[in-house]
Design a protein that fits this description.
There is one protein chain. By secondary structure, the chain is an alpha+beta fold. The chain has one domain (34-261): Porin. It is built from 3 helices and 17 strands. The chain has a 17-stranded antiparallel sheet. It is globular and about 50 Å long. 18% of the residues are buried.
Length: 263
């Protein structure tokens, strides 16, 4: 056999071996990705008022910018994550500047978050600390809240119960002798449609994605994300669609603890 022919055969064998060696790696890399729908905009119908979303490379919410009816920016929320896409801090520019930091236990469960907010004139500082307790199902069962507003201090407790699908059913807020019970109701797509007497009207497109909520229109886009983060990203989307958008002051469900409250 001629040397040139031997060389060609050798190169062919080498190419085949390289193909066999690297093909599984490429296919694994491909299979590690999946597609999810994420919010790009929540807009108030017939108005310039809206919130716009941006994402990091992993598909986690990076920032949310909110504009008023005159299209002026009135709030920016930024979210910071570690290399494992775990939320470590967030900032809020509404009527001042606020920063929330998050602490986790050895099981990577959220055990505390702390918000320190300063007014624009630097005359007012509010501090909120939430401490979390978990049940046997590894879901948040209790949130102990302490706060300080100037010289005023206080504390309250939130207890949570869940329905058969694993979604929050009731939130009982106790402060001193006062007790408030919030009951949550869902539709068949697990979208929050009622909190006590506050109702939300939903309409869907053909893909069963929420496109209208009360007087607002929600816009989505499809992105490719790591499979191991897909469920976490979907929970972030649920929180913004169902909680922050409708009653941000009434629900303890946020981006940090959604992974432990939602199914």
């Amino acid at each position: 056999m001629k040397r040139k022919t031997k060389k060609i055969i050798a190169l062919s064998i080498l190419a085949a071996l390289l193909t066999l060696q690297f093909a599984p790696i490429n296919s694994v890399a491909k299979s590690n990705k999946t597609s999810v729908y994420v919010l790009t905009k929540i807009a108030t119908k017939n108005s310039k008022a809206c919130s716009k979303f941006s994402y990091d490379k992993s598909g986690m919410i990076k920032s949310v910018k909110s504009y008023d009816w005159q299209n002026k920016l009135w709030r920016t929320m930024n979210y910071n994550y570690d290399k494992y896409s775990k939320l470590t801090s967030s900032t809020n520019s509404y009527a001042g500047s606020g920063k929330t930091t998050y602490k986790y236990d050895k099981k990577n469960r959220l055990i505390q978050d702390k918000l320190v907010w300063h007014s624009d004139d630097a005359k007012t500082t509010i501090t909120y600390v939430n401490k979390y307790t978990y049940n046997k199902s590894n879901k948040i069962s209790k949130i102990a809240v302490s706060y300080q507003y100037g010289k005023n201090k206080g504390n309250s407790t939130m207890t949570l119960s869940y329905n058969k699908s694993g979604y929050v059913k009731t939130i009982t807020d106790t402060e001193g002798k006062e007790k408030f019970v919030n009951k949550l109701s869902y539709d068949k797509y697990n979208n929050l449609i009622k909190l006590d007497s506050y109702k939300i009207k939903n309409t869907y497109n053909s893909k069963k994605l929420l496109v209208k909520q009360n007087n607002e229109v929600l816009t989505y886009k499809k992105i490719s994300v790591p499979k191991n983060l897909a469920n976490k990203i979907k929970k972030q989307q649920w929180v913004y669609k169902n909680c922050y958008n409708n009653f941000p002051q009434q629900s303890p469900i946020d981006l940090a603890n959604s992974n432990y409250i939602l199914p």
